[in-house]
Write a structure and sequence with these properties.
mainly alpha
Length: 167
C-alpha cells in the first residue's frame, strides 16, 4: 500500500473516531435529558452500535498509523521513537483506546442494566441516584475522551515533523 492510500485511510479512521466520540456523547446527552425510561433504555441499547464499531476503527488507526510511521522513516537514519510528538501521540492514543474500551464499555453495561431494572420495575430503592452517578461518570468520561482526541489532533497537526522546533 503506498503512503498516500495509507494516509488517506488514516484520515478517514480519525474522522470515524471523531464521529464515534461525538455520537456517543450525543446519545449520552439524550439519555440524560429524556424523561421516559423506555426511551432511555432504547437509546442506551442503540448505543451498542458505537461500541461495536470502536474496535474496528481502533485497529484501522493502528494499522494505518504503523504504515505511516514506516513510510515516514523509510530510508532515513532517524528512528520513530526519537520524535517526542510521535511518542506522545501514541501514548495518548493508547490511553484513549483503553479508556473507551474498558471504562466506557463497563459504564455502558452497568447503566443499561440499571435502566432495564428500572423498566422492569425491580430496581433498587436508590436507582435514581445511581443513574445520576452513572450519568455524571459518563459526562466526565466524554470530557476526558474529547481532551485526549484534541491532544492527539494537535500533536498530529503541530508535531515537529510539520513545524520544526514546535515541540
Amino acid at each position: 500500500m503506498s503512503g498516500s492510500f495509507n494516509f488517506f485511510f488514516h484520515i478517514i479512521a480519525v474522522g470515524l473516531l471523531f464521529v464515534i466520540v461525538v455520537g456517543g456523547w450525543l446519545l449520552h446527552r439524550k439519555i440524560v435529558n429524556e424523561k421516559d425510561v423506555h426511551l432511555k433504555l432504547y437509546v442506551s441499547t442503540s448505543g451498542r452500535v458505537i461500541g461495536l464499531l470502536s474496535p474496528f476503527i481502533t485497529v484501522l488507526l493502528l494499522a494505518t498509523g504503523i504504515g505511516n510511521i514506516y513510510n515516514r522513516y523509510l530510508g532515513t537514519e532517524m528512528h520513530w521513537y526519537s520524535e517526542g510528538w510521535l511518542v506522545a501521540k501514541i501514548i495518548f492514543f493508547a490511553i484513549l483506546a483503553v479508556n473507551g474500551a474498558i471504562f466506557g464499555a463497563m459504564m455502558t453495561r452497568k447503566r443499561t442494566a440499571l435502566l432495564q431494572s428500572i423498566n422492569q420495575q425491580n430496581a433498587p430503592e436508590n436507582a435514581e441516584s445511581m443513574l445520576k452517578v452513572f450519568n455524571r461518570q459518563f459526562s466526565w468520561h466524554y470530557v476526558v475522551q474529547f481532551l485526549l482526541l484534541a491532544i492527539i489532533i494537535l500533536l498530529s497537526t503541530f508535531g515537529s515533523g510539520k513545524h520544526h522546533g514546535a515541540f
